[in-house]
Amino acid sequence: MKRNKSSISTKQVYSELIHKSIAAALMIGLGDYVLLKIGNPLGPFMFAFGLLCVCVMGANLFTGKCGFLIEDKIKPLHLLVILLVNLLAGYLFGLLFSVADVSIIAAAQEKATSWHFDWSFFIRSILCGVIMYLAVAIYRKGSKLGILFGVPLFILCGFQHCIANIITLGVAQTFSWTIIPCILGNFIGSLAVWWLC
After folding, report:
1. Most buried one in 7, 18, 19, 169, CB count within 10 A?
2. Count of alpha carbons within 13 angstroms of residue 60, beta-carbon side
3. Could you tell me the end-to-end alpha-carbon distance of the chain, in angstroms, rounded to an integer?
4. Rounded-to-integer distance, Cα 85 and Cα 138, Å
5. Residue 30: phi, psi to the nearest 5?
6. What is the pLDDT of residue 7?
């Protein structure tokens, strides 16, 4: 009997984890959609809607969680599930957006082809992680200003966000292994600023 209860509880935990991770991918996807649609200077500010929704609705976004891995005692396996679901759902949402609006495909392809395996890309991924941690940390302290300023900041600076990037790749209907250093950079940047603070 205890085994069944434990099994059900585990299923519920992972079901909620997956649902909230899909929701986060959709929310960030909407932000990426509008960014590809209208570009600078307004797009980066509109993108902030995505992270704001993630925080307000309590969705599971890898880049919003990884910096709190130790502080919130998040299980590494749970964080891995969040990442994998964010990536898969994000790519699928990107494909869906490309079908819904072919006008954004060219912008996504142009952006994707600009990503390269180099130190510049990796450092910009780390810096994005720093901003993501700070934006969420400020939100947790009761202010939305970290999100409203932080998101446009990382976009306008050309910093790299792994979930936004996978969505862009979906829209572009392609794939790039630069997603790996982007994930690592986001993770390192988030934990580094947590440690410093």
Report:
1. 169
2. 23
3. 46
4. 26
5. -65, -40
6. 59
Residue bearing tokens 């500010």: 45
Close Cβ partners of 45 (under 8 Å, ≥ 6 residues apart): 148, 151, 152
Contact 173, 105 (CB under 8 A): yes
Q: Which domains does the chain have, with CATH numbers?
A: 2-196 (1.20.1080.10)
Give the model's pLDDT for residue 6. Answer: 52
Cα separation of 138 and 1, whole Å? 44
Residues 6+ away with beta carbon under 8 Å from 70: 191, 194
* Cα separation, 41 vs 109, whole angstroms: 19
- 35-to-10, 45, 167 alpha-carbon distances in Å: 37, 9, 12
Mean pLDDT, consecutive 10-residue stretches, the chain (197 aa), reads: 59 96 98 97 97 98 97 97 98 98 98 97 98 98 97 98 98 98 98 96
